[in-house]
Specification:
- By secondary structure, the protein is of the alpha+beta class.
- It folds into four domains: 5-73, Orthogonal Bundle (434 Repressor (Amino-terminal Domain)), CATH 1.10.260; 81-254, Orthogonal Bundle (Arc Repressor Mutant, subunit A), CATH 1.10.10.2910; 259-356, no CATH class; 379-416, no CATH class.
- The chain has helices spanning 5-19, 23-30, 34-42, 49-59, 70-73, 81-88, 96-118, 138-155, 166-171, 208-224, 241-254, 257-266, 302-312, 316-325, 331-338, 341-350, 365-369, 371-386, 392-402, 406-416, and strands at 175-180, 186-193, 197-203, 230-234, 274-280, 286-292.
Length: 417
């Protein structure tokens, strides 16, 4: 049976990798652009007899092997990102739709990486890697997560302000970001693979503030745990030291201490019951001036917690825990405020502050959050088509994977030529 270009391309790619050669080295040896090698290995470009002869000599294989199905059956040095992820958890078993969505997102990331490659863009290196030893206990995990969060906010120039457009921010750090259907007890996934770089997937069925926390949580894994191929964040893993560190990072990254205290001060809350100032005269003698706040004026109520949650775009309950961690409220106050979560959500709903309400998003919100992934791949596809790096057929194939009208994508791409 005649072999097709896709299978031929895969055989050529495997032969090159087995020989330890880069695409750049092969392109130089053949006297063709590197993008031509990319297209050959992807099955998007035919190859001449002379080029095959040169490759056979370069790879130390007979030409006939390139047309053999047996070459593909040999074990690969690195398993696919989808297989690597599925080996890590049994949670996808029995969830065919979940598996389909995760596979689709990973395939989109691979397509995006391929398009960036043919366009000559730099390989995605992602954000900086913080070389921190694995925490030995929970307190060390919290300390490390909090410290790295402060350093990362400083690096990104975020100051004390809330983070708006979190998926876009993470995407700009060289990560593939999307929300997909996952089992309810699974909040997110972190995946690292040579074919795509790093990807973050979060549960699209969770409430918006929880999804924001999950994005930040998985970002911590990209910063601190990228030596692992895949990480599944689940409810039952909450006490795992690396998960605790990621949770501490997310809380400090989304709700910086200085920002919370500043916001509470704007509400005339969070101040000590007695404020003291020392006044010095020219003789360097001090005079103490003090004032006591009105009793009860500094009590943090559910409406204050809800206001902080709304400002930073996090959940009411996450805000309660953060205020307690910062010693702004004590354990008794934390329990009392936690019991008022329904009041807090009703307060936010009444004021239409949907970004902080602990309830599932309206239909379509998860699709809006995936705009960064889809829009970036569409941009790359149109640019690659304009430069004649991909064919009309490849463009239509991408439109199916992106779930957008093929005719519309083709029309837009042709308009860019």
């Amino acid at each position: 049976m005649p072999i097709n270009l896709v299978t031929l391309g895969k055989n050529l790619k495997k032969a090159r990798e087995d020989r330890g050669l880069t695409q750049e080295a092969v392109a130089e040896a053949l006297g063709i652009p590197r993008t031509a090698v990319v297209h050959i290995e992807a099955g998007n470009r035919s190859i001449s007899t002379l080029e095959l002869a040169h490759l056979a000599e370069l790879y130390g294989r007979p030409i006939a092997e390139f047309f053999s199905e047996e070459l593909l059956s040999e074990p690969s040095s690195e398993e696919s990102p989808i297989l690597a992820l599925h080996r890590l958890t049994d949670e996808f078993k029995g969830h065919s739709e979940v598996q389909r969505q995760v596979d689709r997102c990973v395939e989109l990331c691979q397509e995006g990486a391929m398009l960036e490659d043919v366009l000559g863009k730099k390989t995605r290196s992602g954000p900086p890697f913080y070389h921190v030893a694995d925490p030995k206990n929970l307190m060390e995990a919290v300390r490390e997560g909090t410290t790295v969060a402060a350093e990362e906010r400083k690096r990104l120039g975020l100051g004390e302000a809330p983070i708006h457009g979190l998926p876009d921010l993470l995407s700009n750090q060289g990560l593939w970001v999307a929300s997909v259907e996952l089992p309810d007890d699974m909040s997110g996934l972190f995946l690292r693979h040579s074919s795509i770089g790093m990807a973050i997937l979060v549960n699209c069925d969770h409430a918006r503030p929880r999804k924001r926390f999950s994005y930040a949580h998985e970002y911590a894994h990209a910063l601190l745990d990228r030596n692992r191929t895949a990480i599944v964040s689940k409810t039952e893993n909450v006490k795992d030291h690396s998960e605790a560190r990621a949770n501490a990072f997310a809380a400090a990254f989304l709700m910086p201490e200085a920002g919370i205290r500043s916001f509470l001060a704007s509400l005339d809350k969070g101040l000590p019951s007695r404020q003291t100032h020392l006044l010095y005269d020219l003789g360097e003698t001090g005079v103490e001036a003090s004032v006591r706040n009105v009793p009860g004026s500094q009590t943090i109520g559910y409406q204050d917690v809800a206001s902080v949650a709304r400002y930073f775009g996090v959940s009411y309950q996450a805000t309660v825990y953060r205020l307690h961690a910062l010693n702004i409220i004590n354990s008794t106050e934390r329990e009392s405020l936690s019991a008022q979560v329904e009041l807090g959500n009703r307060y936010l709903k009444m004021l239409k502050f949907r970004q902080a309400i602990d309830s599932p998003d309206e239909e379509g919100d998860d699709e809006a959050e995936n705009r960064q992934l889809v829009s970036h791949i569409v941009y790359l596809a149109i640019e690659a088509f304009r430069r004649e790096e991909i064919s009309r057929g490849k463009l239509l194939e991408l439109s199916k994977k992106l779930d957008i009208p093929g005719k519309e994508l083709l029309s837009l791409a042709q308009g860019a030529v």
